[in-house]
Design a protein that fits this description.
Blueprint lengths: L1 E13 L3 E3 L2 E3 L3 E3 L7 H13 L5 H4 L12 H14 L2 E11 L9 H12 L6 E6 L5 H4 L3 E12 L1
Parallel strand pairs: 5-6
Antiparallel strand pairs: 1-4, 1-7, 2-3, 5-7
Helix pairs in contact: 1-3, 3-4
Bound molecules: magnesium ion.
């Protein structure tokens, strides 16, 4: 078994959609980025790549590459799973924590689990998603951005 961790931050701005774990949330601001800026999927991809010692998401999908402009991050996650399976790894489980003051994440967690399990070709019970505020402290507390952490366990087949 191999373990990996990932972390990502994206800035909150007006005039962008908010995508988290492949689900669109209604909010007055969205996350800024070259792709759809799905901060939770990016942290998850880094955890998965890290577990396989395969560098990071920026290495595989550079933000200078026009192919990835505005891309649905679920597509990146699917490609990460192909890389892992090519090397003989299968997902054990993963666990994501999203740090955001607003909007409320909890009502969307079942839909997020379904979406990620679909992208990764695994069961929903292999995909844990949690959300927390940072008690109005720091950049997440001031609603300047959203942060996400992820850990993933891989099993060699
Ligand atoms: Mg990112």
């Amino acid at each position: 078994m191999r373990i990996g961790m990932g972390f990502d931050v994206h800035r909150l701005v007006e005039g962008r959609e908010m995508w988290l774990c492949g689900v669109k949330l209604e909010h007055e601001k969205g996350l800024l980025g070259h792709s759809d800026a799905d901060v939770a999927i990016h942290a998850l991809c880094d955890a998965l790549l890290g577990a396989a010692c395969l560098r990071d998401i920026g290495y595989h999908f550079p933000d200078t590459d026009e192919r990835y402009k505005g891309i649905d991050s679920c597509k990146l996650l699917e490609q990460v799973m192909v890389l892992l399976r090519d090397r003989g790894y299968e997902l054990g489980n993963c666990d994501i924590t999203i740090c955001a003051e607003r909007p409320k994440i909890n009502p969307h967690i079942p839909a997020m689990q379904r979406r990620l399990a679909q992208c990764m070709g695994c069961d929903e019970n292999q995909v844990s998603i949690k959300a927390t505020t940072t008690e109005k402290l720091g950049f997440t507390g001031r609603e300047e951005g959203i942060a996400a952490y992820a850990v993933a366990l891989l099993q060699e087949q």
